[in-house]
């Protein structure tokens, strides 16, 4: 226990000080941290899933609060919670099916659901399976909405309690934890390989002699372009430098090193160059539930330019960047203001920053936001590790990755604290 | 002398009659069948859709005697239209005479009695009526019961073709009955009692749906925002009520909602909650839109494209909001999802309603009396439903999942 606590605190510090660059690294570290939290959690005999969920939630709340702008943290916390629920349900249905097949007198089963007439195993399995799924029209008339509407504890609590009476308790508890850790390992694997998965699709999208525009630097974009190059596509890349951090310079350098024809332009030249461009390919910081994109600053302008000239605007995003929340005033609430030193040299402008003049506040203010919000209607296509998707389809991916009960997890601590 | 109706549906109905009988009002009147059985089943005011009468009774300030007055004011042409209405309806009722409608027990009566309760949505009333069919049924197998239900739901649907949520509710329940879940019970009686139990719970489900929607939409209402609301919708009222209870500071603009003046009722309710309200005439929407932060509307039905069918005027409000980049939010329960795909405004049968212009309208002047319009999905931002916050394209996905 104490050593996970130390790990958690360490990670919290890093998040608070913004020491971790990039959502992929953050996602990976979050997943690894949660994995160790799960393995350290003592599980009681009854309601094991509930115990795991509670401990993950307790850590998750603090992580999210440490850096609410880094949405990848919240995404991974929710993914892990979803994994726990999923594994619990699959174990439950397996146990249930075993019970009904083997035992002729399924008295426990009856006692469990005495309010209903006798159900066949298939019905039980279907019912418990659908607790995980988001509510749909199909389940509207069935019992499911009731349990889905009630907070999480009841959904797993009652069911697993009934089961553990019959199934071998200790093995089952170890089985659940084991399965969950396996699944989290898979998740970490997915995060690691998402670049390759996305890059594999490059040849389908980049064609011979095309001109691609990108802004700033993103590892996903770099791999994507290089993958197309490796498949013997010859094309040109325009790189907008991405002020104020000028990461575009680094990207251009990398691309040239890999033998790609590269042109470096200023951000303000995007509109001038866009008419020559066949496709805009950019990375994202996060993708919201409505298909809107939180992206490095300057991309909204690029998206508008692309729309003006009917150039496809393609966003590459690993599945850990899919966020199940809807953006509310994202330009302000999901933005981060960085140090003004990236914009200007303190030595030169120190006299403008004089606090002694006038009413005590300097006349010069520097605002350096990190992110832009690109509304979904400006995005032509999302490429994730599972393939290409329309912005209006993002909700479907999100429904696959997250369970509806967990969406609010993060809202509670912010209002509570 | 034939009255040309503005709506093509009525024209078509009249044309069919033109084919069958000579266009002589008197002979037509005689030729209309004796209203013996049809009498109990048909609408008393066939000129006004049944759908609209419910709305008028539940939502509007106008009273039923006002309706009657308006009916009288519509004037001389009514009788031939009325007779055509009777004709069409009698044909429909004749067909289902053998089924649930023809017995001592009638679905439609049942439906109508449920419908009178002001807090009950139409789809809920329909499902209650179908549950009553199950209870009264003497069927001994699932198949028989299904056939009986099918007949009953068909007669319900044909009784009022203008109501979308009635059709959607019937379809949803029929789907539930035919779907595997009910067939998984080993014996028929338990399956039957389960169906009845679920149907009776549906009223609760619908109330819960409203609460879920209200909770989901709270994140979208921020302090200091101005909300434009069109028409009276129970869901929207619940949303605003919850927001007021959560101590959100917001202001509401209500459109007047001519001719039912539904906006008056909504503004009344909101004033009771101490929410600042401003009433607008319907034509002032574009004028005030720059002050508005978001538009909230309910829906009579959500169609497969993700668009909505709602009270007349929603479409133009959505257009104005879209052109000024304001979000348009729709609050609708998921049982209003209907398998329709209207391509334009005239694709649905119009629900007609009386309109009081205050002065007598010369008989040569046509009056557009349709009560609702279709708003295409590209003008809607998000739908708040009990299934979650959805983009319009999700609606078809949900419907496909259900009916595939």
TrEMBL record, chain A:
Segments of skewed composition (Basic and acidic residues): 160-171
Segments for region (Disordered): 143-176
UniProt KW keywords: Cytoplasm, Initiation factor, Protein biosynthesis, Transferase
GO biological process, one term: translational initiation
Principal place of residence: cytoplasm
Subcellular location: Cytoplasm, Cytosol
InterPro entries hit by this protein: eIF2B_beta_subunit, IF-2B-related, IF_2B-like_C, NagB/RpiA_transferase-like
Domain of life the protein comes from: Eukaryota
GO cellular component, one term: cytoplasmic stress granule
Pfam families attached to this UniProt entry: IF-2B
A GO MF term: translation initiation factor activity
Family: Belongs to the eIF-2B alpha/beta/delta subunits family.
Assembly and interaction partners: Component of the translation initiation factor 2B (eIF2B) complex which is a heterodecamer of two sets of five different subunits: alpha, beta, gamma, delta and epsilon. Subunits alpha, beta and delta comprise a regulatory subcomplex and subunits epsilon and gamma comprise a catalytic subcomplex. Within the complex, the hexameric regulatory complex resides at the center, with the two heterodimeric catalytic subcomplexes bound on opposite sides.
Protein name stated in the entry: Translation initiation factor eIF2B subunit beta
Organism: Theobroma cacao (Cacao)
Automatic annotation (TrEMBL), chain B:
One Gene Ontology biological process: translational initiation
Pfam family, one: IF-2B
GO cellular-component term (any): cytosol
Keywords on record: Cytoplasm, Initiation factor, Protein biosynthesis
Subcellular location field: Cytoplasm, Cytosol
Region (Disordered): 1-43, 73-101
GO MF term list: translation initiation factor activity
The family this protein is said to belong to: Belongs to the eIF-2B alpha/beta/delta subunits family.
Subunit structure: Component of the translation initiation factor 2B (eIF2B) complex which is a heterodecamer of two sets of five different subunits: alpha, beta, gamma, delta and epsilon. Subunits alpha, beta and delta comprise a regulatory subcomplex and subunits epsilon and gamma comprise a catalytic subcomplex. Within the complex, the hexameric regulatory complex resides at the center, with the two heterodimeric catalytic subcomplexes bound on opposite sides.
PANTHER family registered for this protein in UniProt: TRANSLATION INITIATION FACTOR EIF-2B SUBUNIT ALPHA
Protein name: Translation initiation factor eIF2B subunit alpha
Species, as recorded: Theobroma cacao (Cacao)
Lineage: Eukaryota, Viridiplantae, Streptophyta, Embryophyta, Tracheophyta
């Amino acid at each position: 226990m104490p050593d996970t606590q130390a790990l958690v605190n360490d990670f919290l510090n890093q998040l608070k000080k913004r020491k971790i660059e990039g959502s992929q690294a953050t996602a990976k570290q979050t997943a690894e941290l949660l994995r160790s939290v799960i393995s350290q959690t003592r599980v009681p005999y009854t309601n094991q899933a509930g115990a795991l969920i509670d401990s993950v939630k307790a850590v998750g709340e603090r992580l999210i609060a440490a850096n609410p702008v880094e949405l990848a943290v919240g995404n991974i916390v929710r993914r892990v919670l979803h994994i726990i629920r999923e594994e619990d349900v699959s174990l439950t249905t397996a146990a249930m099916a075993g019970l009904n097949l083997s035992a002729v007198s399924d008295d426990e089963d009856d006692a469990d659901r005495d309010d209903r007439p006798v159900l066949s195993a298939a019905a039980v399995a279907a019912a418990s399976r659908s607790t995980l799924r988001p509510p749909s029209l199909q389940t509207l008339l069935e019992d499911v909405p009731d349990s889905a509407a009630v907070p999480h504890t009841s959904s797993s609590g009652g069911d697993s309690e009934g089961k553990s009476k019959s199934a071998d308790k200790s093995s089952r508890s170890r089985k659940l934890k084991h399965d969950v850790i396996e699944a989290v390992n898979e998740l970490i694997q997915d995060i690691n390989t998402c670049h390759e998965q996305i890059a594999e699709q490059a040849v389908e999208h980049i064609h011979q002699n095309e001109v691609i525009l990108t802004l700033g630097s993103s590892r996903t974009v770099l791999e994507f372009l290089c993958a197309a190059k490796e498949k013997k596509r010859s094309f040109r890349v325009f790189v907008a430098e991405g002020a104020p951090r000028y990461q575009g310079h680094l990207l251009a350098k990398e691309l040239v090193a890999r033998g790609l024809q590269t042109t470096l332009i200023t951000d303000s030249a995007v509109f001038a160059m866009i008419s020559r461009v066949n496709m805009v390919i950019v990375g994202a910081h996060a993708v919201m539930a409505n298909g809107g994109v939180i992206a490095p600053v300057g991309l909204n302008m690029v998206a508008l330019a692309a729309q003006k000239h009917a150039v496809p605007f393609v966003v590459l995003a690993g599945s850990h960047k899919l966020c199940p929340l809807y953006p509310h005033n994202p330009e302000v609430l999901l933005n981060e203001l960085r140090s003004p030193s990236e914009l200007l040299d303190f030595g030169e402008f120190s006299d403008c920053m004089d606090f002694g003049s006038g009413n005590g506040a300097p006349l010069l203010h520097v605002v350096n936001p990190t992110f832009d919000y690109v509304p979904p209607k400006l995005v032509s296509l999302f490429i994730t590790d599972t393939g290409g998707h329309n912005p209006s389809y993002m909700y479907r991916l999100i429904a696959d990755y997250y369970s509806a009960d967990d969406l609010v997890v993060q809202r509670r601590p912010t209002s509570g604290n | 002398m034939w009255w040309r109706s503005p709506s093509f549906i009525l024209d078509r109905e009249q044309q069919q009659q033109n084919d069958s009988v000579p266009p002589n009002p008197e002979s037509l009147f005689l030729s209309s069948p004796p209203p013996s059985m049809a009498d109990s089943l048909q609408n008393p005011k066939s000129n006004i859709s049944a759908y609209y009468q419910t709305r008028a009774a539940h939502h509007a300030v106008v009273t039923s005697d006002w309706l009657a007055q308006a009916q009288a004011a519509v004037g001389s042409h009514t009788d031939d239209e009325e007779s055509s209405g009777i004709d069409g309806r009698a044909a429909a009722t004749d067909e289902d005479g053998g089924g649930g409608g023809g017995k001592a027990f009638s679905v439609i009566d049942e439906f109508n009695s449920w419908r009178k309760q002001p807090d009950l949505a139409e789809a809920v009333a329909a499902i209650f009526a179908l549950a009553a069919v199950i209870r009264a049924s003497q069927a001994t197998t699932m198949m028989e019961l299904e056939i009986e239900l099918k007949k009953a739901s068909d007669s319900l649907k044909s009784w009022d073709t203008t109501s979308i949520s009635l059709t959607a509710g019937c379809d949803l329940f029929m789907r539930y009955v035919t779907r595997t879940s009910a067939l998984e019970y080993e014996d028929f009686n338990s399956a039957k009692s389960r169906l009845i139990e679920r149907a009776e719970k549906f009223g609760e489900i619908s109330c819960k749906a409203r609460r879920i929607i209200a909770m989901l939409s709270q994140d979208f209402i921020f302090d200091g925002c101005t909300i434009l609301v069109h028409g009276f919708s129970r869901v929207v009222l619940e949303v605003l009520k919850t927001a007021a209870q959560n101590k959100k500071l917001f202001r509401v603009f209500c459109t007047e909602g001519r001719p039912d003046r539904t906006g008056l009722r909504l503004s009344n309710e909101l004033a009771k909650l101490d929410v600042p309200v401003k009433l607008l005439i319907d034509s002032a929407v574009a004028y005030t839109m720059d002050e508005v932060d978001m538009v909230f509307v309910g829906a009579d039905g959500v169609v497969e494209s993700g668009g909505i069918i709602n009270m007349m005027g929603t479409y133009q409000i959505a257009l104005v909001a879209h052109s000024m980049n304001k979000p348009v939010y729709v609050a609708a329960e998921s049982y209003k999802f209907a398998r329709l795909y209207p391509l334009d405004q005239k694709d649905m049968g119009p629900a007609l309603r009386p309109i009081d212009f205050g002065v007598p309208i010369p008989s040569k002047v046509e009056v557009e009396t349709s009560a609702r319009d279709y708003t295409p999905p590209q003008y809607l931002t998000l739908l708040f439903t009990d299934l979650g916050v959805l983009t319009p394209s999700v609606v078809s996905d949900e419907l496909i999942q259900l009916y595939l």
